[in-house]
Design a protein that fits this description.
Layout (H helix, E strand, L loop, with lengths): L1 E10 L3 H9 L4 H4 L3 E5 L9 E4 L7 E3 L2 E6 L3 E7 L7 E11 L2 E11 L3 H28 L5 H4 L9
Antiparallel strand pairs: 1-8, 2-3, 3-4, 5-6, 6-7, 7-8
Helix pairs in contact: 1-3
């Protein structure tokens, strides 16, 4: 059995800017309500350590492997729960250029013997978490470029 979740958002920023935010894993705790901690290097075949917080659910740490990294276009990883076949998941972020910015589609396909037992929970807690992350990523990518003064708490005008 399989189950697919998908959520999308329009972002008034270039695919390059959206990619920059999406792949700045160290900054996730600052803005991401779903993947609240992310560590690792973004590159094909690399493993990430991700702590995910579904809406109304328990935080869960996963170690997926990146299977597709196409800068400005696609970030995809594959992970599993405990052992192959229980619940395997393939998570994708697809960035599509559109007039005035980028269409971001976040999706995940779940397969395995546990899927029928957790399908309702995925709809109830994981899908809303995708939407929350998409909206937070949108806000972050649409922010004006941050300068050192602004990031440090100054005015951005060159004076503290």
């Amino acid at each position: 059995m399989s189950k697919q979740l998908s959520a999308h958002v329009g972002i008034a920023a270039t695919p390059e800017r959206v990619w920059e935010v999406l792949t700045d894993l160290a900054a996730y705790p600052e803005w991401n309500p779903f993947i609240v901690r992310a560590e690792g290097a973004v590159g094909p075949g690399r493993r990430l350590t991700l702590t995910m917080q579904p809406v109304g659910g328990r935080a869960m740490t996963m170690r997926p492997r990146l299977i597709e990294v196409d800068a400005g276009r696609v970030l995809r990883w594959r992970g599993r729960l405990v052992m192959p076949g229980l619940m395997d998941a393939e998570h994708t972020f697809a960035l599509q250029p559109q007039a005035g910015g980028t269409r971001l589609v976040q999706s995940e396909t779940f397969r395995g013997i546990l899927v029928p037992f957790v399908a309702a929970s995925l709809d109830r807690s994981t899908l809303p978490a995708f939407a929350a992350m998409n909206e937070a990523l949108k806000r972050r990518a649409e922010e004006p470029a941050r300068t050192g003064a602004v990031a440090a708490g100054g005015t951005g005008s060159g004076t503290p």
